[in-house]
Amino acid sequence: MKKTARIAVALSIAALALSGCGERPSDDNDTNAQETPSASDSATTPKESHPNFKACMVSDSGGFDDKSFNQTSHDGLVKAKTDYGIKTGEAQSKADADYAPNLENLAKEGCNHISTVGFLLGEATEKAAKKHPKIDYSIVDFGYEKPAKNVKGLGFATDQPAYLAGYLAASQSESQIVGTFGGAKIPTVTIFMDGFVKGVEKYNEDKGADVKVVGWDVAKQDGSFTNDFENQAKGQSLADALIRQGADIVMPVAGPAGLGGLQAVKAAGKKAIWVDTDGCVSAAEYCDVLLSSVMKGMDVAVEDAIKSSIDGTFSNEPYMGTLENGGVALAPYHDFDSSIDQETKDEIDALKAQIISGEITIS
Amino acid sequence: MSGKRRFRLDGKWVDSVLTTVAAIFLALFIGAVLIALSNEDVVDSMGYFFVYPWDFFSRSFDVVGQSYGKLISASLGSGDALANTLNRSAPLICAGLGVSLAFRSGLFNIGAQGQIILGTLAASYVGFTWDLPGPILLLASVAAGILAGAFWGAIAGFLKAVAGAHEVISTIMLNQVAALGVLAYALSEMKAFQKPGDTLGLPQSPPVPDKAAFPELFGVHLGVVLALVAAAIVWWLLNRSTLGFELRSVGSNPEASRTAGMSTAKVFILTMAIAGALSGLAACMFINGDQASNNESLVGSVGFDAITVALLGRGTPLGSVLAGFLFGALAVGGGAMQTTDAGTAPEVVQVIQSLIVLFVAAPAAVRWLVRQRRKEPTSTFAAKGVTP
C-alpha cells in the first residue's frame, strides 16, 4: 500500500507541474465537435459553401496512400472539400470483397456523389448506381459501353502528352535509343507507351532520324512490364536492362515501382520522363534527371465531376481528359529548360496545337 | 502428449473457450486504445490532458463507441448486415477447414491461397464458357473449382510422400506459382480466360452468368450452407471414418502409424487433396457466390487468413466455423468503421485479428492476466496440468 500511495503522490505532483503545459482551444470547438472534426478545417475559407452536399470516394485494394492513382484521385476529393465547402466521406478497400459493401455503406451515410477509383470497381459501381438512382457516381480510369444514367466514366487521353514526350525524348537522346516500361499490361498503362513510341516515330519521320525505342512494341502490343506497381526493385532492374540495351532516356509507367527506375537512371547518369504527376513535385529528389512528365489530371477530373453534381449539371457522358481541356498535359521542363533548344520547344508546341486541332490523331 | 489433444478431447474445452473469449476481449481492448490514439480529436485533447483530462476520456469514449458501435451494427445489426457477414465468412470457413484438416495429420498447409486461386480460375472458366442448363452448369462450375483446388493441394502432398519435400516450402512455392504464374498469365495473356469481346484487354474474367450462381435466400447464398455441410463432413471424416483415424494417427506419430501398417504416403496425398478441395470450395464462394470477376486481387488474403482461422478454431471443424464467422464479421464491420465521423481506419481490424490469434497462441499469458483479475490461486492451473 505504501508503494501505491507514493506513486499516487508522485503522479499528482507531476500532474500539477504539467498542468501548465497544454492549453485547451476555445470551448466552441468542443460544443460543435461533430461538425468540425478537426481544427485545421476552419482555418481554410472555402470559395463556396455547400454544407449539405457530401462527396465520397471508394479506393481499390491499393488504398488512398498508394502514391499513385488512388492518391491522386483522393487529392481531387480533398480539393473539392476545401474549394466548395462540402462534406466528404471515404472508404478504403482492403480486398475486392470490400467494394460492394463500401459503396453501400457510403450510400447509407448520405453521400450525394460517390467516386470510385480504377477498373476493378467497374461492376460494383454499376450495380450500386442502379440500386441508388439518386446518387451520382463517377469512376476514374474506366468507361462503360452503355453507362447507367448516373455513372460518369473519367478517361484520359494520356497518349497525347506521351506523344509529345516521345518527340522530346527522341530529340534529346544522344545514343539514339530511348526506352519505356510499364507496371502491368493494361490499357491505362500501355496507352502511355503507345503515345511515347508514336512520338518517337514522328521525330524520325520529320527529321529523317533513326531513334529506336526499347521496352515496347506497338504493333505486337508487347514489351517490358514489372507486373507490380509497388516493388521498386523490379522497376530498377527493368530500367537497368533498358539502359544496358543502350537507352539513355527512360519513361517508367509503373506508379511507385517506377521510382526504382528513376533510381537506376540517376545512378547511370541517364535521363527520364515521369508520368501521372509532375515528377519535379511528387518525386523532387529526381528532378535533376527528369526532362519532363506526362501528367494525368485525375484530381482535376474528380473535382470537376463533383462540381457538376453540386451545380446540377451532372450527366453520364464520359469525361475524356485531353490536351485541349487540360485534363492531361506535358509538365514544364524544369532543370532542363535551358538545355533544350528553342527549336525543339517550338516544334513540341506546334505538335500540341496540331493534336488539339485534330490535325494529328494518335490512335 | 500434445496440448492440442488435451484441449479438445478431455472436457477441457471450457478452458479453451474461456481463453479464446479472453483473447478476443483483450484484443478488442487494445484495438480500442489504437482507435482512440489514431483519432485527431483525441490526440489534440492530449495536449492539454492535465488541464482538462475529461476531454481526453470523453472523446476517446466517443470515438471508440462510434467505431465499435458501427463494427457491430454493420456486421450483425440487421438482416442485410448478417447476410453480408455470412457470405463473407463462407470462404474463410471452407479454407479454414482445409488448413485445420491438414493440421490434424501433422501437415502445415500454407497453400490455401494457391489452391483457392486455382479454384477460382477453374470455376469461373467453366461457369462463363460452358453452355449447360442452369443447375448442371452450377454443379459443373463448383465441381471444377473443387477439383482444381484438390489437384493443387495434392501436388504438395505428392511431393511430400514421394520426395520428402517439406509441405511448408512446397505450398508456399505453389502459392507463388499459382498467383504469379498461372493466374497472372491466364488473365493477361490467354484470351480464353478474358472477357470475350473485351476490346480493352483488361486482365479479368467476366462474372459467371446468373444460372451458374448460388441461389440466394434473404441475401444469403447457398454457399454458406455448403460451407456448413463441408464442416459436418470434415467432422465425420475426422472422428468417424477410417481415413480420419489414419489421418489423426499419422498426425500424432507417423513412425508408429507406419509400423502399424498405415501408408503415410497415402495419408499425406489424400489429406492435402481434401484440404485443397475445401480451398477450391472457398474459391466458389467468390465466383459462384459473389459472382465476382476473376482478377489478380479477387482472393485477397483469404488463403492466409484461413491459417489464422484454423489456429483460432484449434483445428476442429466447429472451431473453424466459429472463427470464420468471427473474422467474416470483423471484415464486414471493420470496413464500415471508416464511414463514421470517427473515420477509423480498417487496418485496426487486421490488428485485432492478429492479436486474437497471438493471444490464443500464447494462452499462458492470457490466463495469467485473467487470473490476476480473479485472484485465483496459481495452483489451479498447475493442477490441471496445463502448460504453455
Quick recap:
The complex is a heterodimer of chains A (363) and B (388). Chain A is an alpha/beta fold and 363 residues long. Helices cover 43% and strands 17% of the residues of chain A.
Strand content of chain A: 15-25%
Number of E strands of chain A: 14
Low-pLDDT regions of chain B? 1-10, 376-388
Helix content class of chain B: over 70%
Strand order of the largest sheet of chain B: 1-2
Separation of the first and last Cα atoms of chain A: 82 Å
Oligomer: heterodimer
Q: What is the H/E order of chain A?
A: HHHEHEHEHEEHEHEEEHEHEHEHEEH
C-alpha-based Rg of chain B, rounded: 23 Å
| CATH homologous superfamily assignment of the largest domain in chain A | Response regulator
**What do we call the CATH topology of the largest domain in chain A?**
Rossmann fold
Give the overall shape of chain A.
globular
Q: DSSP helix count of chain B? A: 17
CATH class of the largest domain in chain A: Alpha Beta
DSSP summary, beta strand count of chain B? 2
Instruction: Estimate the strand proportion of chain B.
Output: under 5%
SSE order of chain B: HHHHHHHHEEHHHHHHHHH
Structural class determined from secondary elements of chain A: alpha/beta
Domain module tally of chain A:
2
The number of helices of chain A is 13
